[in-house]
Amino acid sequence: MAAVEPLPRKVSMRMPAKLNIALRVGPARADGFHELATVFHAVSLYDVVTVTERPQGSGTSLTCDVDGVPTDASNLAWRAAERLAVEVGRMADVHIMLEKGIPTAGGMAGGSTDCAGTLLALNELWQCGLPRERLQELGADLGSDVPFCIAGGTQLGTGRGEVLTPVLARGTFHWVIATATSGLSTPEVFRTLDRIRPDADEPRVSEAVMAALRAGDARALGRALENDLQPAALTLRPNLRRVLEAGLEASALGAIVSGSGPTCVFLVRDDDHALDVQVAIAASGVAQDVVRAVGPVRPHQL
Ligand code: C5P
User: Fold this and answer.
1) 283 alpha carbon to ligand 1 midpoint, in Å?
2) Residue nearest to atom 14 of ligand 1 (CA)
3) Domain span at residue 64?
4) Cα 37 to Cα 14: distance, rounded to the nearest angstrom
5) How much is the pLDDT for 8?
6) 100 counts as catalytic
7) Which of 167, 193, 225 represents a domain boundary (last residue)?
8) What is the pLDDT of residue 298?
């Protein structure tokens, strides 16, 4: 009887998108990054990252099920594989498959969460046994949001976003998320902010946000949502104002641009309310796509 070739081993991770419930931006630093104080929150919009072993010496390859995502060494997920391979002293003979459920260039950390998923999945596939903290250190070199994407949940981020502290947050929050047809460049949004607001103070998340999270009070959180990048995103994309207004007119508890945009997010009371707000924004025709999500959630191995 002919020998049966073993199937290549693979590991899949379901990786959440992130919102910034609060995003306060300080002055530009000497290294070009900005000092941040932000509350990251992982929500139930997911990319699936699958890593499959390849024959020895065949290197790294990457595929993605949507157009517009680089499939070469410039993709953060590819760089994650190379970085982890160096860390553990092996070759990065792996295929990375990205299945996108998160809008690309939307300010929801899709690229960073794919990078985080690759680190988590390869740590399993290659049985590296690295602790989460070490994966987060490796991830921080690849992108400011990557350490959060490895952890998920609700966390305070300081430094350039890579220094994390868990936030006491009660219950589940319900969100409606409106995407735009084309992305915004994160560096350009930060540069625009520096131009329209040259004198930045030290960033600090308001006590109103922290208290609303502690209490699990969606109504109070809706009033307290804050994003210093929003005026810059609106300067670059003035029609986002109409998207935010459509959600507020449809009785959302709060409306905010997500991170550097152009995705807009709306806090709502519960599932039924989410459906009402989703339908109203979709009917207004100002957004490309409107979906519902809950948070906090965490990365999950499939
Ligand atoms: O760290 P990441 O590669 O995701 O950042 C993308 C860009 O966003 C940076 O090159 C920088 O222009 C801007 N950024 C910043 N300050 C931060 C995080 C990001 O200026 N704290």
Assistant:
1) 34
2) 33
3) 10-167
4) 27
5) 73
6) no
7) 167
8) 98
Count of structural domains, the chain: 2
Q: Phi and psi of 294, rounded to 5°?
A: -125, 160
| Residue having the nearest C-alpha atom to atom 19 of ligand 1 | 33
Any residues with Cβ below 6 Å from ligand 1, and which?
33-34, 36, 143-145, 160-161, 186-187, 190
Q: Which atom of ligand 1 is nearest to the CA of 35?
A: 21
Task: Tell whether 1 is covered by a domain.
Answer: no
Using most ligand atoms within 8 A of CB, pick from 29, 83, 186, 188 the residue to mutate for ligand 1: 186
CA 150 to chain CA mean position, Å: 10
Look at residues 21, 37, 112 and name the one whose alpha carbon lies nearest to residue 299: 112
Q: What is the CATH number of the domain that holds 51?
A: 3.30.230.10
- pLDDT means over runs of 10, the chain (302 residues): 77 97 95 96 98 96 96 98 98 98 88 98 97 98 97 98 96 95 90 94 97 98 98 96 96 96 96 97 92 97 97
Pairing between strand 34-53 and 94-99? antiparallel
**Alpha carbon distance 135, 70 (integer Å):** 23
Q: What is the pLDDT of residues 65-119, one digit of tens each?
A: 999 999 999 999 999 999 999 999 999 999 999 999 998 878 899 999 999 999 9
Is 18 a known active-site residue? yes
Q: How far is the CA of 29 from the centre of ligand 1 (A)?
A: 11
Whether the CB-CB separation of 76 and 104 falls below 8 Å is answered with no
Annotated catalytic residue, options 65, 145, 194, 201: 145
